[in-house]
Design brief:
alpha/beta, Rossmann fold, formyl-coa transferase, domain 3, 2 domains, 6-stranded parallel sheet
Length: 388
């Protein structure tokens, strides 16, 4: 039995935030029915090259695997009625339609609760609905800018232009919060029998994530220092050059720093007046990083990694993204699995990273075509209606 077997989720979300959340729950065994726009489907289908089918892009294969798809035009009474039937038989209804728009369609919380009194009604929003940004649209770039994330790279490299972190990090973090919220609401429902409305706002979720370390001394009243975690913003904190590549080396504790500098033949730095003066101000790490960078070009990655492993120094090679599938650890743990999608062909699929001792691994479903399960779902609804 899978972890979430018997849980049905109606997923009216698009792009990355919502689909990423429900994909994680589908991996755990929940039945996720993806409701899409007829014809074009979710725009996430077009993220990544879709060959030979442009609606089956490579990112769609990841964030929508294991789901079923039905295409419904909710402005048509017959299709809206089908969605109402789906909600009436579901545990969770998750959408990221703006509040006023979902109410016009007839699927706000009150309407859905009338269909299923214990429904877990999840609204993925850009911004909390009791604030001045409530009706604004939100995408990853918008949220990165609004949370101050675009100010971080300029503080590292001195280029004053705000820049985005090169990942859909706000979408994915909000998706993690969304999956967590659904699981918590399901536990509450199991204990009490109660459903509830759940709001998952991207802005607040990502602000909580980023400010965990970066609010720092600005959290105090009055502030005793600026926002921003100095260790993360230190421009000398970079992978170090070696004879044949670069290494991430982390002298995190005083003990590991002393061991590392001893291995490098630079232990005298720790007793130098310059180091003592810098440490008094909490500014000694740039001196350590500069010394490491001066010494590491003398040997290869392999030489240094062997030496550091023997002496318990945290270090890893800085791998090129293009070669990540060849990482020996990921290969050994089966993180990537070669599969053949019936519509797309062979592809390498990431496996769920969390393992459960009480739930054996299983084959994950494939990402669906637009309305790929529509006929089957309609037939199931008809059979249920006849059985009443």
């Amino acid at each position: 039995m899978t972890m979430l077997e018997g849980i049905r989720i109606i997923d009216l979300t698009t792009v990355i935030f919502g689909p990423y959340a429900t994909q994680m729950l589908a991996d755990l065994g929940a039945e996720v029915i993806k409701v899409e726009t007829p014809g074009i489907g979710d725009v996430s289908r077009y993220l990544g090259s879709g060959i030979p089918d442009p609606t089956m892009g490579s990112i769609h294969l990841t964030v929508n695997r294991g789901k079923r798809s039905i295409a419904l035009d909710l402005k048509k009474p017959e299709d809206a009625a089908l969605l109402r039937d789906l909600i009436a038989g579901a545990d969770v209804f998750f959408h990221n339609v703006r509040g006023k728009a979902i109410a016009r369609l007839g699927f706000d919380y009150a309407a859905c609760r009338a269909l299923k009194p214990d429904i877990i009604y999840v609204h993925g929003t850009g911004f909390g609905q009791d604030g001045p940004y409530a009706d604004l649209q939100a995408y990853d770039d918008v949220i990165q800018a609004a949370t101050g994330t675009t100010s971080l790279l300029p503080r590292v490299d001195g280029d004053p232009s705000p820049r985005y972190f090169p990942s859909l990090i706000a979408d994915k973090i909000a998706g993690q919060f969304g999956a967590q919220a659904i699981l918590a609401a399901l536990v509450h429902k199991l204990r009490t029998g109660e459903g509830q409305a759940v709001e998952v706002p991207m802005f607040e979720c990502f602000a909580a994530f980023m400010l965990t370390e970066h609010l720092r001394d600005a959290a105090l009243e009055p502030p005793i220092g600026p926002a921003g975690y100095p260790r993360q913003l230190d421009p000398t904190r970079q992978p170090f050059p070696t004879a044949d590549g670069h290494l991430a080396i982390v002298p995190y504790t005083p003990e590991s720093t002393a061991r590392l500098l001893t291995l490098l033949g630079s232990a005298d730095l720790l007793t130098s007046p310059a180091f003592a003066a810098a440490k008094e101000k909490g500014q000694h790490m740039p001196l350590v990083y500069a010394e490491i960078a001066r010494k590491t070009p003398a040997r290869t990655n392999a030489d240094w990694l062997a030496l550091f492993a023997e002496n318990d120094i945290p270090a890893m090679a800085a791998r090129d993204l293009q070669n990540i599938k060849d990482d020996p650890h990921l290969v050994a743990t089966g993180f990537f699995r070669r599969r053949t999608h019936p519509d797309v062909g062979a592809f390498d699929e990431m496996q769920p990273p969390v393992r459960f001792g009480a739930a054996p691994s299983r084959d994950l479903g494939f990402a669906p075509k637009v309305d790929g399960d529509g006929d089957a779902i309609r037939s199931e609804l008809n059979r249920n209606e006849r059985a009443r």
